[in-house]
From TrEMBL:
Compositionally biased spans, kind Basic and acidic residues: 144-153
Family: Belongs to the asaB hydroxylase/desaturase family.
Name of protein: Methyltransferase
Single annotated GO MF: oxidoreductase activity
Region of interest: Disordered: 144-169
Amino acid sequence: MASITQNQGTAPHLLSSIGNNISVTESTSQTLQVSKSRDVTATFNYFKEAADGSPPAPNIANQPTSYVREYLHRQKVVHDIRGTEEQYTLDSTGFQIYKHESAEKDFVDDEQIKRVYYPETEELLKKAQSSTGASKVLIFDHTIRRQESDPRNKPAAPAQPVDSNAPVTLRGPVRSVHIDQSYQAGFDRVGYHLPDEAETLLKGRVQIINVWRPIKTILRDPLAVISANTVEEDDLVPIKLIYPNRVGETFSVRPEKEGRTDGGHRWNYLFKQAPNEVTLIKCFDSKTDGRARRVPHSSFIDQEFEDEAPRESIEVRALVFHPDDTNGEQQSEDEYCHLQPMLNESRR
């Protein structure tokens, strides 16, 4: 933040030429506060089709080599949204910045995280979703990302979610464009985690929201998200995720089609994101009435900060239920019917 004191002889054009993406506010003392956003250009790894047109091979939980793929590399402008955070909401763009101070600071003890941080996060999600009546939250796992050599680390694990029954481990940033759940996987999560309640819960709105928090202020490997309304359905590629006891599914993401006149995928991040600045990432929404249903995301390399300390962050994944939100279109009958065999099997 820079300060410019406006004297009577200061020409207006000198103020306007300071730079693009600058917000200027004038105080009663004629001191102008100038805040410049920091947009950057970065390379993102998008899904690459197989030469023979075959479907993508599945990912295997806890088998890191199964995640190794060829990608299409695309350079994109990443927009720094600092100062305009209120323009981005879960229902309009699929993500939201939420200010929240946590009592947990170190995130080194899993049991303490579950005892202290989980209840905090549940309340955070209810407050953030108060306008649509979120009344039930179920956290089903969390991931901590730190440098592999950090002495606080547990044994290395793949850079993708493992099943909730597996031990929570620490992993590095994910540098491919993805969504943690496909639409079908979103429905299946309800039946898997809450088989006795699923049929009732699915009559109302269901979301899966990731709560992503820096443990220390982020410079290296920041998180970027694509505005959901700039991602077309044809951009999404379902990829099976094989667990020991079930089959899940994620989305990889194709680059936008050539010829789009609307600018294509709009990438966003928050420069120097601090521990009290939480990113809410919508991975699934059962509503199909125009509200954002999913948001692709990825870490990216900012060349200016590659020599900084490695990123430390925690990501909590949660099912969020809105039993009273019955407005708008809900999931399709086909999707709901697909869930029934899982419900029946889980009750045997």
